[in-house]
Design brief:
The complex is a heterodimer. Chain A has eleven helices and 23 strands. Chain A is α+β, with helices and mostly antiparallel strands. In chain A, strands 13, 14, 15, 16, 17, 18, 19, 20, 22 and 23 form a ten-stranded antiparallel β-sheet that branches. Chain A is globular, with a radius of gyration of 23 Å. The relative contact order of chain A is 0.17. Chain B is of the alpha+beta class. Chain B has one domain (15-174): Nuclear Transport Factor 2, Chain: A (Roll). The chains are: A alpha+beta, B alpha+beta. Chain A binds chain B through residues 91-95, 195-205, 223, 225-227, 229-232, 236, 335, 338-340, 348, 351-352, 355-356, 358-360, 363-365, 367, 369-371, 373-375, 377, and chain B through 56-58, 60-63, 66, 72-73, 75-82, 85-86, 89-90, 92-93, 96, 98-101, 177-185.
Chain lengths: 453, 188
């Protein structure tokens, strides 16, 4: 990592971030340790494993993990590597298995609570009685499992660190803005599902460019002008999104999360038609709008356009409505995953209209996202040189103009255009990289109590 | 069309013997590839039926006994699932000159081969629907050193009417699980 300390690499208060954190191999190895083996990471959605024994192979950092629903209905997350000699146990993207048997020497592992005490425990070893003379302690040689796993409204999160705070503390009041994406459009809690199939693709950029982009970089919209000109909006109209109220850059400075969206509001106003070309879709959105007004009444509510949960998960909260995760591969390459969210109980026509819109917007074939990847790869490539990597990126827009959001403890607003959200993201990154304890990392954490659904 | 690459049987005698149809289908696909490689996108759009479906499903690693799930289904996520409107929008976006993933323009060569005519059925409008399977190898070169290779299988339903050929549906099966290029900004 050269000779600079983390505090020299990230001078968040001045709005300076060294380019080397986007290209340096040693810093990358340190990130895997300090960030990815400690933080809460998004590993998937429950709708990817609807039935007992269903599994989905995911990633945490650079490691392959198995996300599975055991026969008792619990979600488990285990390292996809045999405890014996390390072979990848599961070589499929998804499927349904009661046990995972290693192709190398045949060790098998189970999550079934009737067979084993701990998920991932070793159940079968060829030659256990004969070659091992019954002396191998199977209980000691189960799969490495995550220390904590949480199913939050269908989104599955896990951490390798037993000392990590509960997920809801880690999320803090960012929860309100994540809820706005995960909740049913009618205002009831949860109820989303992922449209079948996860897009996965390789991008030759540092993984941090993507969450930075989603945390609150509204002014990069200039690079999407070509799609704004063409117009791919959900109603078939102008622009590329549904109409939205003025967006603000909102962040949780103590936690590293942030978003573009609306400040708390208490009443939504009349429904604005936007799907004129699709009467059934229009009828549905009108109906859920009216239902939401009845469900929430005059309660506080928020709206998210795009947001990032530190370190590597981002989401779109309205239309398009998607989950994205940015898996590190190396200092200069990431694997990007996208999943597309709809209300589980929406009519097929609504799901189909949403699906077509999401696919023309996002993903490598998306007319919007294709230009994002161009920016991130170009910036990575142009920061690799011995000269360029010594320079700093400029994040100085709006330093010192954050205002607290009175209704949401721990939340700050920075107007529409600012680099504050990126500054708090990289400050959080530096705190993890400096190896701060969880007590230090969570010192400023606050959260509101969950609203009774 | 119900026939898909993963389910249709392959028999030695299953392709249509009519040499003239095979020759015309091949000539049409080669002409289409030439239009794309020479960036004549408006002329290419003119080859598409108003009701075209243009889909590239995701390719997944699944157990041999579950190969029916290798490609994502019709109502699942995909790399592309388009109709005529969005294909026209894509061309319009390229032409803005500020669609940076295609600016400066890619250098693209489509190699289209292994062309087989599987089926010819009469069309409601008095023409014929010609079911054609082919392979593609597409080379894309961008900027200084960016190279992407796309290899896979295509299944097309072409319409032949009054000597004119159009594309009614195209299903593209890319031989890649994790997409190894950062964006898909070319036509297949």
């Amino acid at each position: 990592m050269g000779h600079k300390s983390i505090d020299e690499l990230v001078r968040a208060e001045e709005g300076l971030v060294s380019r080397s954190i986007f290209v340096d191999d040693e810093i990358f190895q340190q990130e895997l340790q300090q960030v990815f083996s400690r933080a809460w990471l998004f590993v998937g959605h429950e709708s990817l494993v609807p039935k007992p024994d269903d599994y989905f192979v995911s990633r945490m950092g650079t490691e392959s993990v198995i996300l599975t629903r055991d026969r008792q209905g619990q979600i488990q997350v285990m390292l996809n590597s045999c405890a014996h000699r390390g072979m990848k146990l599961c070589r499929y993207d998804h499927g349904n298995n009661r046990t995972f048997t290693c192709p190398y020497h045949g060790w098998s592992f189970s999550t079934d609570g009737k067979l084993v005490e701990k998920p991932g425990e070793l159940v079968g070893v060829p030659g256990h009685a004969t070659h091992y003379k019954g002396e191998l302690d199977k209980k000691q040689w189960g799969l490495k499992t995550v220390a904590q796993v949480v199913n939050y409204k269908g989104a599955i999160w896990a951490t390798w660190d037993a000392d990590a705070p509960p997920f809801l503390d880690y999320l803090g009041n960012m929860r309100l803005y994540l809820d706005a994406a995960l909740d049913n459009r009618d205002g009831s809690s949860g109820g989303s599902e992922v449209i079948g199939g996860v897009q996965k693709w390789r991008v030759k950029c540092n993984w941090k460019f993507a969450p930075e982009n989603f945390i609150g970089d509204l002014y990069h919209d200039i690079s999407h002008r070509s799609v704004d000109i063409v117009g791919i909006g959900p109603g078939g109209g102008k622009g590329r999104r549904d109409p939205s109220a003025t967006r603000s850059a909102i962040c949780f400075p103590e936690l590293g999360h942030g978003l573009l969206g609306r400040l708390p509001f208490y009443e939504e106003g009349p429904y604005a038609p936007q799907y004129a070309r699709y009467p059934e879709v229009e009828a549905y959105f009108r109906q859920v709008h009216e239902q939401r007004e009845r469900t929430l009444g005059s309660a506080m509510r928020v709206q998210t356009s795009v947001g990032t949960i530190f370190p590597n998960m981002s989401f779109h909260g309205r239309q398009p409505r998607t989950l994205a995760v940015f898996h590190p591969i190396s200092a200069t390459e990431m694997e990007m995953w996208r999943m597309y969210l709809v209300d589980k109980d929406a009519p097929e026509a609504v799901k189909e209209a949403a699906r077509h819109y999401f696919l023309r917007y996002s993903g490598p074939g998306g007319m919007t996202e294709s230009d994002d990847m161009e920016n991130w790869t170009g910036a990575t490539e142009a920061s690799m040189g011995a000269v360029s990597r010594e320079l700093y990126f400029n994040y100085q827009m709006g330093v010192g103009h954050a205002q607290p959001v009175p209704e949401i403890p721990g939340c700050a607003v920075n107007g529409e255009y600012t680099e504050e959200n990126a500054r708090i993201y990289y400050r959080r990154w530096a705190q993890f990289m400096n190896g701060l304890s969880w007590d230090q990392l969570m010192a400023g954490s606050v959260r509101v109590e969950e609203r009774a659904a | 069309m119900n026939a898909t690459i993963d389910s249709a049987p392959i028999a030695q005698d299953s392709s249509v013997d009519d040499m003239q149809i095979w020759w015309q289908a091949q000539r049409f696909l080669h002409y289409e590839a030439d239009l794309l490689d020479h960036r004549e996108f408006d002329n290419w759009l003119a080859l598409l039926d108003e009701n075209i479906t243009y889909r590239m499903p995701l390719t997944r690693n699944v157990r041999r006994d579950a190969l029916a799930q290798e490609y994502s289904g019709k109502h699942d996520a995909a790399w592309f699932d388009e109709g005529i409107d969005t294909l026209r929008q894509r061309v319009a976006q390229i032409k803005t000159g500020i669609h940076w993933a295609e600016e400066p323009a890619s250098r693209v060569s489509h190699l289209v081969t292994n062309i087989r005519v599987l089926d010819v059925v009469p069309d409601e409008d008095g023409g014929e629907q010609v079911h054609v399977r082919s392979r593609f190898l597409i080379y894309q070169n961008r900027l200084q050193a960016e190279v992407n290779l796309f290899v896979g299988k295509r299944e097309d339903v072409l319409r032949r009417r009054d000597g004119r050929w159009t594309i009614l549906s195209r299903e593209i099966h890319l031989d890649q699980n994790v997409l190894l290029s950062k964006a898909l900004t070319i036509f297949f």
